[in-house]
Amino acid sequence: MDHYIWERDFDSQIEELDVPDEWSFSVDNNLLRAQSGYVLYTQHTYGGFCCSSCRRVWNSAEIQILFAVTLKKWQRCGTVKMRIYRQRCKKCKTRIMEQPQISRVNINIVIANLVKMIGKRFYNQDDGKQTKAPVIYSKVKDGPHEKEHCEACQLGICKNPKAQETSVAEVVTAVSAIALIGLGTLAALLSNK
Ligand SMILES: [Zn+2]
Ligand SMILES: [Zn+2]
Fold this sequence. Notes:
Layout (H helix, E strand, L loop, with lengths): L2 H15 L4 E6 L11 E12 L6 E16 L4 E8 L2 E2 L8 E2 L5 H20 L27 H4 L18 H19 L2
Parallel strand pairs: 1-4
Antiparallel strand pairs: 2-3, 3-4, 5-6
Helix pairs in contact: 1-2
Bound molecules: zinc ion (2 copies).
């Protein structure tokens, strides 16, 4: 995964928000939900995976992304940490969790939703626009969501409706609403074929 694309996209979109604080963005592959002083925010997006063992490829519209966001008002310094949850091939017995490939368009959408949340939550800015759902490039579904192959499920943060025994109560309410809008749109897309 190219961290640079995410960082650059964030930098340019946060600049458009025109706020008095300096914001930084980083990828943290060990990010956990227990982050005191941080606002937790989740999104899902669409992308593709390739098994490094058998070379099978699959797509998922349920790639989970966790953000931990904080603003230190006194230092005028905002921080965003991001973790993209991986998935495992279901055809082979390998335990390798694979990183997804996510399109530039979907990276842009994820960052736009994140920046929108920051504007709303930390600066009371609301453009009144809806949160955007990811672009789904294929109608081929990869079968039901399987908990044992999804890193987010294993860590109890997956928002997939078929993986819902896990508690998502700790995640801020606004975020849950955003995720639900996204899933609703996805459901509509899938039932349209
Ligand atoms: Zn495989
Ligand atoms: Zn899952």
